[in-house]
TrEMBL record:
Gene3D superfamilies found in the cross-reference section: Phosphorylase Kinase, domain 1 (3.30.200.20), Transferase(Phosphotransferase) domain 1 (1.10.510.10)
Protein name: non-specific serine/threonine protein kinase
Glycoprotein in keyword set: yes
Its EC number(s): 2.7.11.1
InterPro entries (UniProt xref): Kinase-like_dom_sf, Prot_kinase_dom, Protein_kinase_ATP_BS, Ser-Thr/Tyr_kinase_cat_dom, Ser/Thr_kinase_AS
Family listed: Belongs to the protein kinase superfamily.
Lineage top rank: taxon: Eukaryota
């Protein structure tokens, strides 16, 4: 099956924007079906504010329902979003080639005049951060579900790094970019910052560092170097956040460490690592498995990228009882010591 580039899609749209009357997309290119602007407007009730799911630097996301009853999520690019256009094209280029149960599914797109929209499967349970960082919602995630989410995210990242047709570095893995379906299965989203690596390519470097404070690896934040091990670092932060129910950038009065991973390390060295576990779990969890997950998280956030495990090794460690290496001191780079009140959950653009 051939891949159609965005430029070719755009040229075809100018010649043929026909869409079936029942609201289903034209499937002339099965790789990425096209939706008409009219279909999207009908589905979202003209992008009614009541249907708005969220907003980012690229534009807004709306919930919609096609005439056949299928619920969708529509990402509408803002007309004045310069960088957003690059990320928009990047997301299409990647998602059109990817298919995995732990990645959000792209259903189609809409290009008409100045309008640029992406159509995704609708995931009713919002994003992971809505649950793990909310005082009232955290209790709805017991340990069994949290562990399933931890494993599901790992499988999704492993697919990006190794099992798909491409080798992809996500570069912005974080709780708000993990969506949850009706059964609370995790789906990695937002591939606007992602990059494709060649088969033999190990790392790359950029002058434009993009991502989110608290999730970026030190080599990426400080030097612009990124690789699969950058995603591993982000995954480790996310794993520890799921266990603790707190952001990595969360500050607590009287705590020596400026971030969560530093606090976890301190407790680990004092053999009190389980003190970090979210109180909302009410101590209803298997101590050995949780302690193992904490150790895996610490292995992922080690300062030297070479020492971090690969995603294949992480999935194996999560699914087996093989002995684990002792973790080394995690990365404490300068951005982590900034005044966290000014940088909590802040995106770098």
């Amino acid at each position: 099956m051939s891949f159609v580039t965005l430029d070719k899609m755009m040229r075809q749209i100018n010649h043929d924007s026909s869409v079936e009357e029942n609201g289903a997309p034209n499937n002339r290119h099965p790789n990425l079906p096209f939706f008409s602007f009219k279909t999207i407007m009908t589905a979202t009730k003209n992008c009614d504010h009541k249907n708005k799911l969220g907003q980012g630097g690229f534009g807004s996301v709306y919930k919609g329902c096609l005439v056949n009853g299928q619920e969708i999520a529509v990402k509408r690019l803002s007309r004045d979003s310069g960088q957003g256009k690059v990320e928009f094209k990047n997301e299409i280029t990647l998602l059109v080639k990817l298919q995995h149960r732990n990645l959000v599914r792209l259903l189609g797109c809409c290009f008409e005049k100045e309008e640029r929209m992406l159509v995704y499967e609708y995931l009713p349970n919002k994003s992971l951060d809505f649950f793990i960082f909310d005082q009232n919602q955290r209790s709805s995630l017991d340990w069994v579900k949290r562990f399933e989410i931890i494993c599901g995210i790992a499988r999704g990242v492993l697919y990006l790094h190794q099992d798909s047709r491409l080798k992809i570095i996500h570069r912005d893995l974080k709780a708000s970019n993990v969506l949850l379906d009706a059964a609370m299965n995790p789906k990695i989203s937002d591939f606007g910052m992602a990059r494709i690596f060649g088969e033999d390519e190990i790392q790359a470097r950029t002058k434009r560092v993009v991502g989110t404070y608290g999730y970026m690896s030190p080599e990426y934040a400080m030097e612009g170097r990124y690789s699969t091990k950058s995603d591993v670092f982000s995954y480790g932060v996310l794993l520890l956040e799921i266990i603790a129910g707190k952001r990595n950038t969360h500050c607590e009065i009287g705590r020596d460490s400026p971030n969560l991973i530093g606090h976890v390390w301190t407790l680990w060295t004092e053999e009190r690592a389980l003190d970090i576990v979210d109180p909302a779990l009410n101590q209803s969890y298997p101590l050995d498995i949780v302690l193992r997950c904490i150790q895996i998280g610490l292995l992922c956030v080690q300062e030297n990228a070479i020492n971090r495990p690969s995603m294949l090794e992480i999935v194996f460690m999560l699914c087996n009882e093989t002995p684990l290496c002792p973790p080394q001191k995690p990365a404490f780079y300068s951005m982590a010591t900034m005044n966290c009140k000014n940088h909590q959950h802040q995106d770098l653009q």
